[in-house]
Amino acid sequence: MSKIDRRRKTVLILECDSDKLRQQNLDVGAELRDQINLVFPRNLVELVSASTEGDLLESFAELSRTKQSYRTIIIIGHSNRHVLALSADRPVGWRSVGNWISTFRPHRVILLACEAGRWLPCAAVFDSIPSLDVIFGSPLPASKQQQLVVLARVLHILGARKEDVGLNRLLQWANFALTGGVMFTRTRKEYENGGNEEGEIWTNALEPFIEEIASRFRT
What we know:
The protein is α/β, with parallel strands linked by helices. It has a single domain, classed as Rossmann fold (3-Layer(aba) Sandwich), CATH 3.40.50. Helices cover about 50% and strands about 20% of the residues. It has helices spanning about 20-25, 30-40, 55-65, 95-100, 120-130, 145-160, 165-180, 190-219; strands at about 10-15, 45-50, 70-75, 85, 90-95, 110, 135, 185. Helix 5 links the parallel strand 6 and strand 7. The protein is globular. The relative contact order is 0.13.
């Protein structure tokens, strides 16, 4: 087995309320980890699967003791624009989600969770994680099939010196064509420059419009 080089780009996969995801055949965390490790065996890829708050606290404590940062964090779970089911007994607001993972100093957060890519959840996560530069997530209901675009995005991140904006746009269009779903890239610069006014436009006008278009495409 190749020795893991901890200086390389690191990934943390957080699978929330894993028992429920397993019952629904949505527990894709281990599959994503194995696929990433297959291509990049020397990159550190950790998986945390938690069904209760106690499980989550224990896992986070173990990771924190290593003082390892994770440049990319993938969150898989059930959510809406207000809360994420962090565990079976712990639905939390998005600002609290950011506080939970900020200790790992991520540069990028990928959200495979329903409505997590909307403006308000992203704003809350940006506010609570100073190191965060980019959020990638769906403003609409997410699906298991979108793990493919998540995997492609992560493999590109790990393999490239600098992310190709054109390729990321292509992945977004491919995701829409194949799944009828939408994945947005939000950057801190856009968030800080846009402010509350742009947030209101996204929340009240653009996101409902995108949801209507995607709904028609799926039918």
